[in-house]
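Hi R.,

As promised on Friday, here is the backbone we talked about, encoded as C-alpha cells. Could you run it through your design pipeline when you get a chance and send me back a sequence?
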C-alpha cells in the first residue's frame, strides 16, 4: 500500500513539474500572439513596457528552438588583437605605427597567431619588444608570455561579454565557441533583425565622458585644417553644406545650448580656398556640422594621421551618433572638438535602463554609477559648471549638454536616441560591459524563418505520424492495455519537452528525431511487459497476479536495453558536436522518461482499473 502511494505521489509530482516547466512556453506563445494583434506601434510599445517583466521571463524560460527550426544567424567573429596590442603599448612612435600596420596587413591574410607575427616583425627590425611593451627590463620571452595571456583573456572576455549581450537581447539558447586564438563561432536561433544584432555584437561599448573645447578653439582648428588642405590642393567631392539649426540634446541636470544659425563660412570665399568648408558648416556661436551626404568623407578625413597631427594637443574631432534635422529637413551631423583624455569612463556604470523621457516621447537611457564614479562625477560637474560635456560611445557623441549644476547623485541620462529598440540595445551593451578590443564579422550565414518553418512542419508531421501509427497499433493489438501505453507515451513526450525547457536546452531537428526514436523505445518496453503478461495469462494465472509477474520478469530486459541506450547516447553527447548533441540529449531524456512511464505509470493505471473491475483478460488483446 505504501509503495502504491509513493508511486502515485511520484507520478503526480512529475506531471506537475512538467506542466510547470512548460507553462512559460504557453505564456510566451500567448503574449507573442497578443503583441502581434496590435495594429499600431504605440499600442504595441505600451503593452511591451507594461508587461516587460512577464514577457522577458516567459521568453527566457520557454522551450527554445534550435537554429535549424527557428531560423537565425551563424556568425564567425574575429577579435582585433592588433588593436589590443596597440592598447597595451607605451612610448609609441612612427616606427611602432609602421610595424603594427605591417602586422595588421599580414594578420588579415593569414590565420597565424597575431603574436607570432608581431614578435617576428620585431626580430626582423632587430628591436626588443620591451621598447614598447611592459618593463624595459623584461626579456622578449617574458613579454610574449604576458601578451599571450592578454590575448587569451581578451578572447575569453569577448566571448563572455557577447554572451551577456545576447542573453539580454533575448536570443534563445545561443551557441558560442572559440576557434583558434582569435575567432568566435556564434549561432543565434530566432534572430530576425540581423542589422540590429550585428551592431549589438560589434560595438565595443566604450563609454566616455569628455569635456568639449571652447567654440573659439574649434573655429581656429577648422581654419587651420582648411588652410592645410588648400596648401595641399585637396578638393572634396561634396557640394556645400546646407544652412540649418541643429539643437544638441539634454542630459540629466545638464542643459543644451541654443545655437544661432548664422554660417561663419561666407559666400565671398572662393571655392578653391575652402575645401574643408565645402563639407563642414560653422555657425557664429562656434558649433559645426556636416551633411549626411558628406558624412563619410568627413569621417575619413578626420581619421587621417596628417589631419590629426594638426589638432591641438589632447584633442579629437568627433561626429554625433545621430543627426539633427535642419531648416530644410536635411539631416545634419554636429561635429565636436573634445579632449582626447576622458574625464570618466563607462567602467563606473552599475545600472542602465531604457525608458522614455519626461514627456513620454523621446527614448533615453538612465545610468547609475558606483561610489567611485559618483564622487568623480560630482567633482567633474562641480568644476565645469557652464561648460559642455560630451557623452561618447564607441567614438560617436550621443549628446553634449551644458553642465547646469553639480551632480552629486551619479545619475545621468543618454538621449538623442531615435527608437526604443536602439535604447534597449544601448542598455544591453552598457550592462554587459566594454569589449577588450574591437570585433568584426568575417563570415555570416542566415537561415530564413520560412525555411525554419518548413523544418518545423516536417518535424511535427514526422512526430505526429509516428505517434499516431504507434498509438493506433497499440489500441488495435492490446485493446485497453494499449490505452495505458498511449497515456504513458503522451506523458513521456511531455517530460522530454519539459526537461528541455527547464534546463534551457534547445529543440532542434535532430532532437525531434531523438523524440521519434524515444516513442519507439517506450512502446517497445510496453510490448515486452504486455507479452509477458499474456504468457502468464495463457499459463492460467489470475489477471492481477499475471500483471505483477509480467512486470517483474520484464523489468531486467527493459532495464538492460535502456541502460545500453543511455550509455550510447551519453557517448554521442560527449564526443559529438552540434546536431549530434541535440539528438543525443533528447534520446537520453526520452530513454530515462520511458523507463519511468513504462514501469511505473502503466502499472498504476492497471492497478486503478483493477480496483474498479474495469479490466479482464481480454484487455490485453
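Update: got your reply. Pasting your designed sequence below so it's all in one thread:
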Amino acid at each position: 500500500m505504501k509503495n502504491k502511494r509513493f508511486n502515485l505521489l511520484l507520478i503526480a509530482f512529475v506531471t506537475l513539474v512538467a506542466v510547470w516547466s512548460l507553462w512559460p512556453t504557453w505564456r510566451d506563445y500567448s503574449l507573442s500572439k497578443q503583441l502581434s494583434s496590435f495594429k499600431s506601434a504605440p499600442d504595441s510599445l505600451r503593452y511591451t513596457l507594461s508587461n516587460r517583466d512577464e514577457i522577458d521571463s516567459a521568453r527566457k524560460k520557454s522551450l527554445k528552438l534550435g537554429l535549424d527550426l527557428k531560423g537565425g544567424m551563424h556568425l564567425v567573429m574575429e577579435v582585433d588583437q592588433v588593436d589590443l596590442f596597440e592598447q597595451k603599448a607605451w612610448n609609441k612612435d612612427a616606427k611602432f605605427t609602421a610595424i603594427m600596420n605591417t602586422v595588421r596587413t599580414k594578420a588579415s591574410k593569414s590565420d597565424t597567431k597575431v603574436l607570432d607575427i608581431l614578435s617576428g616583425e620585431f626580430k626582423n627590425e632587430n628591436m626588443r619588444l620591451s621598447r614598447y611593451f611592459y618593463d624595459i627590463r623584461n626579456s622578449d620571452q617574458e613579454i610574449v608570455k604576458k601578451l599571450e595571456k592578454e590575448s587569451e583573456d581578451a578572447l575569453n572576455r569577448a566571448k563572455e561579454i557577447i554572451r551577456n549581450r545576447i542573453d539580454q537581447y533575448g536570443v534563445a539558447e545561443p551557441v558560442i565557441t572559440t576557434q583558434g586564438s582569435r575567432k568566435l563561432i556564434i549561432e543565434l536561433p530566432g534572430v530576425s533583425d540581423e542589422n540590429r544584432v550585428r551592431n549589438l555584437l560589434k560595438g565595443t561599448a566604450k563609454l566616455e565622458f569628455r569635456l568639449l573645447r571652447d567654440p573659439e578653439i574649434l573655429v581656429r582648428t577648422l581654419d587651420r585644417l582648411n588652410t592645410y588642405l588648400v596648401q595641399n590642393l585637396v578638393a572634396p567631392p561634396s557640394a556645400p553644406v546646407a544652412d540649418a539649426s541643429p539643437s544638441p540634446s539634454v542630459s540629466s541636470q545638464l542643459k543644451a545650448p541654443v545655437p544661432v544659425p548664422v554660417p561663419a563660412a561666407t559666400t565671398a570665399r572662393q571655392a578653391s580656398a575652402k575645401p574643408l568648408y565645402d563639407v563642414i558648416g560653422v555657425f557664429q556661436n562656434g558649433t559645426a556640422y556636416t551633411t549626411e551626404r558628406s558624412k563619410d568623407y568627413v569621417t575619413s578625413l578626420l581619421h587621417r594621421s596628417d589631419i590629426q597631427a594638426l589638432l591641438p594637443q589632447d584633442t579629437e574631432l568627433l561626429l554625433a551618433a545621430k543627426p539633427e534635422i535642419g531648416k530644410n529637413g536635411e539631416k545634419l551631423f554636429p561635429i565636436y572638438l573634445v579632449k582626447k583624455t576622458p574625464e570618466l569612463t563607462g567602467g563606473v556604470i552599475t545600472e542602465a535602463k531604457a525608458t522614455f523621457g519626461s514627456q513620454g516621447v523621446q527614448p533615453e537611457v538612465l545610468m547609475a554609477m558606483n561610489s567611485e564614479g559618483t564622487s568623480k562625477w560630482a567633482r567633474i560637474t562641480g568644476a565645469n559648471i557652464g561648460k559642455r560635456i560630451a557623452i561618447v560611445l564607441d567614438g560617436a557623441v550621443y549628446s553634449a549638454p551644458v553642465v547646469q549644476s553639480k551632480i552629486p547623485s551619479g545619475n545621468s541620462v543618454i538621449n538623442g536616441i531615435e527608437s526604443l529598440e536602439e535604447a534597449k540595445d544601448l542598455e544591453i551593451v552598457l550592462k554587459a560591459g566594454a569589449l577588450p578590443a574591437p570585433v568584426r564579422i568575417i563570415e555570416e550565414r542566415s537561415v530564413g524563418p520560412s525555411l525554419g518553418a518548413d523544418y518545423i512542419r516536417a518535424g511535427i508531421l514526422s512526430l505526429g505520424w509516428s505517434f499516431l501509427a504507434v498509438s493506433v497499433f497499440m489500441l488495435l493489438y492490446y485493446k485497453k492495455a494499449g490505452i495505458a501505453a498511449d497515456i504513458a507515451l503522451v506523458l513521456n513526450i511531455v517530460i522530454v519537452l519539459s526537461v528541455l525547457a527547464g534546463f534551457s536546452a534547445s529543440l532542434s531537428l535532430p532532437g525531434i528525431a531523438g523524440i521519434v526514436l524515444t516513442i519507439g523505445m517506450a512502446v517497445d518496453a510496453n510490448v515486452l511487459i504486455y507479452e509477458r503478461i499474456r504468457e502468464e495469462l495463457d499459463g492460467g494465472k489470475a489477471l492481477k497476479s499475471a500483471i505483477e509477474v509480467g512486470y517483474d520478469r520484464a523489468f531486467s530486459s527493459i532495464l538492460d536495453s535502456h541502460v545500453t541506450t543511455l550509455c550510447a547516447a551519453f557517448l554521442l553527447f560527449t564526443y559529438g558536436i552540434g546536431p549530434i548533441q541535440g539528438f543525443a540529449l533528447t534520446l537520453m531524456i526520452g530513454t530515462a522518461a520511458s523507463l519511468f512511464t513504462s514501469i511505473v505509470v502503466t502499472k498504476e493505471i492497471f492497478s486503478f482499473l483493477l480496483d474498479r473491475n474495469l479490466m479482464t483478460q481480454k484487455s490485453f488483446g
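One thing I noticed while checking it: The chain has four domains: 1-62, 72-204+441-447, 207-434, 450-620.

Thanks again,
M.
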